[in-house]
Amino acid sequence: MSNSRGAVVNRISKWHLAGAVAAAVLLAGCDVKDSIYNTSHPDHGTVTLTADWSGIGEGLTAPASYTVKADDYTATVSGATNLLDHLFEPGKYTIYAYNTAEHITVSGTTATVEAAPAPTGQTGTFVRNTPGWLFASVTDAVIEADKEHAYTAMMKQQVRELTLIIEPTGETTGRIESITGTLSGVAASLDIADGTHGAPSSVELQFEKITGGANAGKYAATVRLLGTAGARQELNARLYFTDDSPAAVTLTSDLTTALAAFNADKRTPLTLGGSVVETPTGAGFSATITDWTAGNGDGEDIDANM
Question: What pTM was estimated for this model as a whole?
């Protein structure tokens, strides 16, 4: 009887030992797993994106919100730094960030300025001459599994301000009533991905007489452009005189050279000034604009008679 009781005790002890060993193996397995994975998403990576607005133009402010796109992920975020609410598969990504700007739409990576009606008597494709301020960035990212990534999106200004100042000369200067015009060769679209400007179009110009400062007596028109596009940028203007005496005069001026680097530094407003030169003709006179030079704003605000 005692031998049987001893055998039972031995078997129970072996079972306890086997159970303890199994538990130890399981616990050891848990310890190994916990030491391998560094995050709660071992098969994916996350991205914290910080928008850097230090490169935008003086006096402009960062928008309250902006869009972030990466592959099939799209979200609207606000503030400088955001943990994107998405688990990314490992791989290479291009992260796009851009804001919503008035009169500009973004489809895919293409920003397009809203169309505008052609001025009276004009034909061709026209776009809005004062779209909102568009900022955008392109960031290349490599996502690894089980890792938290941090990237900085350098937001670049994509709309530039242009002011054209015309200085009338000659005997008819005092009789000028108004000056209207158009500028051709402006970009209607921009591919944010590669910076390509396309769809050459025109914008309407409304010149106003400057009433104060160093440029008093001249006429200025200010527009905002997504950029220039096409082989040629040309100003077509028309001068109207009091009592239609003399009759209205049309002038054209090639601005291609003056605007050659327009797309390179959009955060800096550009002011170009030129003088109207009258040439007598059998029917009165013709006019051209010569000597376009940069910086004729003299660093001061233009006080125009609106």
Answer: 0.84
